[in-house]
Amino acid sequence: MDSETDVVRIFDTTLRDGEQSPGISLNLREKVEIAEQLARLGVDVIEAGFPIASTGELEAVQAIARIVTGPVITGLARVEPGDIDRAAEAVGRAGRARIHTFIATSDVHMQSKLRMSPSEVLEAARSGVRRARSHVSDVEFSCEDATRSDADFLVEVFRTAAQAGATTLNLPDTVGYCMPQEYAELLRYVMSEVDAEVIWSVHTHDDLGLAVANALAGVEVGARQVEVAVNGIGERAGNCSLEEVIMAIRTRSARQRVATNANTKEIARTSRLVSMLTGYAVPPNKAIVGANAFAHEAGIHQHGVMVERTTYEIMDPVDVGLDGSRIVLGKHSGRHAFGNALAELGFNLGPEEVAKAFARFKELADRKIRITDVDLEAIVSEEIGSEADEYELLSIQAAGGTHLAPTATVRLRRANEIIDESAIGDGMIDAACGAVQRATGIEARLESFNVSSVTSGIDALGDVTLVLATVGSEDEPVRRATGRGVSTDVVEAAARGYLSAVNRLFALRAREEAGRLSEGVG
Ligand code: KIV
Ligand code: ZN
After folding, report:
1. Which of 92, 143, 284, 469 has the most CB atoms in a 10 Å sphere around its CB?
2. pLDDT at 517
3. What pTM, to 2 d.p., does this model score?
4. 142 in contact with ligand 1, CB cutoff 6 A
5. For residue 144, which atom of ligand 1 is closest to its CA?
6. What is the CATH number of domain 392-513?
């Protein structure tokens, strides 16, 4: 990096804004695993959650603050005293702690949601930032719905926040409404009018498919922090995609004269982990991390790439960690080799998780000759946090054929109880899901179902992602959960995926019953 190249900080909000995607409900263990991977990727800031939302959220942020080293760990808080004190309690143990506080500044939000006048909002921003500064020296302040706010009011609020001690000022395009040039002009205006010694940050949503374009437009006029989520996940159309921003900055650094601190070779693995744990599949044509992002179909392109890669490739797949899977274990590998492979991949599992993952590895080794790092990641991510699960799949048998009604029988464990159930279905996958449904007693319908393969080859692990929605009633809202399962047998992968969604639905219900306070923020 030359002396004229500035660093753009990567602020990852996968675990806060990203986790607000419908159907995602990560447990504490899964959140810690994602945060550890984000640290390996080298993000600068991890927004670990919204601590006031629930006790579970508070505990997850606390765990990340205690365990994950390297990045700054932040928790989100409205400008209210209770929120801020709770965020301080959550990030207190972090090596580098930040409180991120916000209030909405657009007319529609102030009048309809907050029912506050502009001067009340200004005062609340001032006292919120002051209170946050009484806990930590690193405070970020955001004007929610900034891009639909009056520009001069924004200047006033940001100036007040800076005077009260905010060290980062963030301009969210909360509803994904802005055009890139418009966003850049607004940011340039507030930066020059506020004229404070702070880091300016961009936070953009993808409702018009412009989140990355808007964020990069902000960087061009001086933003030095970009707020992103892995695979672009998030409420509605999602957040600005981490991988796209990092690779756009890297690939076009000569034009932008900026760089990030990210180790781009960890991008593919981070994307896979988040996809596995959230159950959100990555579309094949997704930039940077989609299965086809580096595939060349047209003959002319294939020929060109064979002669000289750069004819049709602007990035090297090696740079994003897509240089193929490595064989790490074989049929005869034992517990020791398995443990070493996990340690090399940076997984830090508890004894129960290791035991379950080892059993899955042994099953896989009976069916697949060479086990790669990507296979291991897939089975380990399925087992992470599994001790929190209500039901565990012990076995599945399915049968079908031209003249046979497809049937499936599952054996599940719930605490010390063993449950056997069978079902007939339209196909073996349908029968397997039906058997899990009967065994768990859940009333739900399958909203989407997707099968792909983890690696290539006839013995590749099949990877099922699905969305399950409860039926709902007058007393119970409709709940949605994603599920994911991997196995060399797609019927088993489907049963695993279905069961993981069922477990998430039970966890969601338990959490709601424990009193979820979240109002949901952009
Ligand atoms: O989109 C948004 O406005 C947010 C803020 C809370 C930063 O996520
Ligand atoms: Zn947001």
Report:
1. 143
2. 46
3. 0.90
4. yes
5. 3
6. 3.30.160.270
- Name the fold adopted by 6-278: TIM Barrel (3.20.20)
H or E stretch covering 459: none
Residues 491-520 have pLDDT tens digits of 999 999 999 999 999 988 887 777 544 445
Tens of pLDDT, residues 146-162: 999 999 999 999 999 99
Whose C-alpha lies nearest to ligand 1, atom 8?
522
Q: State the SS3 of 218-278.
A: HHHCCCCEEEEEHHHCCCCCCECEHHHHHHHHHHCHHHHCEECCCCHHHHHHHHHHHHHHH
Confidence of residue 118 (pLDDT cuts 50, 70, 90): very high
Q: Is 102 in the pocket of ligand 1 (CB under 6 A)?
A: yes
Q: Where are the domains of the chain?
A: 6-278, 327-384, 392-513
Length of the chain (residues): 522
Determine whether the shortest distance from the Cβ of 16 to ligand 1 is under 6 A: no
Determine if ligand 1 sits within 6 Å of the CB of residue 109.
Answer: no
Distance from Cα 174 to the centre of ligand 2, integer Å: 5
* Ligand 1 atom closest to Cα of residue 205: 1
Q: For a ligand 1 pocket test, name from 203, 226, 228, 240 the mutation site with the most ligand atoms within 8 angstroms of its C-beta.
A: 203
Q: Give 59: exposed, middle or buried? Use CB within 10 Å, 0-12, 13-18, 19+.
A: middle
